[in-house]
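Moderator note: this is an archived Q&A kept for reference. The question asked for a predicted structure of one protein chain; the sequence and the answer are reproduced below.
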Amino acid sequence: MSGSRDILRRVLGPTGSDPGCDHTGELLDQFVEAELAGRPAREMFPDVATHQEGCPDCREDHLALLDLAGGADIGERSDG
């Protein structure tokens, strides 16, 4: 059942305010740095996390940046 909820959430987008791609892109490196350092990136940058829930392009950028930084396994654990 959680798979259906995940699909629905991705189709409908985030439930909170969405700061958009530009704002998310400006903070994405800091978000990834926090993840790599083991800090709670989703709590530190809730607007970035919220935007990525509904934007496949920004989510893909996030995963690509993690991969480049050597943290692809972090993205696999937090994706979704």
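Archived answer notes: The first helix runs from residue 2 to 12.
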